[in-house]
Amino acid sequence: MTTLRLSAEPRPLGKSGISVFPIAWGMWRLAGEDIAEARARVEAALDAGITLLDTADIYGCDTPAGFGSAETLFGQILADAPELRQRMIIATKGGIRPGIPYNSGADYLAEAIDASLTRMGIDRVDLYQIHRRDFLTHPQEVAASLTRMVEAGKVRAIGVSNYAIHELDALQTFLDLPIVSTQPEFSALRTAPLHDGTLDQAMARDMAVLAWSPLGGGRLAKALHPAAVMLADQGERYGVDITAAALSWIMAHPARPIPIVGSQSAARIARSIDAFKVEWTRAEWYAVLEASMGERLP
């Protein structure tokens, strides 16, 4: 019986010319004042082989340190251990501001990228993504802003997050540069990208898919949903936990989504690569999808 096997070989980040490990680590919960502890998490990701580290200027806004604090803490880690920079691909995002809530205007994005670079203490970010669509900014203006970032040497490649397919198409129309990545929420509990064209568009345009919240916001780990029960069983067959099975289920799709692991436990970050141990038959993979949907496929 044919099975779907995963490869740990680096893969292209779209048309950027950058290669990344098939699993990423996200810093949306990176917080606190203990730089050594935070550095241990970063090093756990790097030691596991993970190269793409994803953050955003808004990360930390729900902590006492506030807006920008995740980038600031990450910058302190890099200042403490500058040699780590050579081992990582850094992605960040801008465009969400509490109380506004979205702004992709030219002046705002110009300030946002400079502020992000300053907080992280770096001269250039490898991937800069518009975090969410700003309905009050014309995509031509957004495109011009992103182009200026690249031309100024502040950004290597550009992407989008939480964009619908027609929104991405509109932005790409005004860009001479390729949008190299799209970042949707995607898990066995949130399968919309399979149906709304997000993954199909990524394959057609040769874009990387960065899947955020691949564990359904932690709900899959509780193994209460029927899809979670199936994932737990699949993981047990291969001697791994439900987290590894959930990541592998995402990664088995031919768009080769890159799940962004959000754990702040160094041990759990290290175990994320257990996903490569899990294999799927078509019947097993589709059974999880049907359990997620709560109905049989036609």
From TrEMBL:
InterPro entries attached to this UniProt entry: AKR, AKR_Detox_Biosynth, Aldo/ket_reductase_CS, NAD(P)_OxRdtase_dom_sf, NADP_OxRdtase_dom
MF GO annotations: oxidoreductase activity
Stretches assigned to the NADP-dependent oxidoreductase domain: 23-287
Highest taxon above the source species: Bacteria
GO cellular component terms listed in the entry, alphabetical order: cytosol
Protein name (record): NADP-dependent oxidoreductase domain-containing protein
UniProt organism field: Sphingobium yanoikuyae ATCC 51230
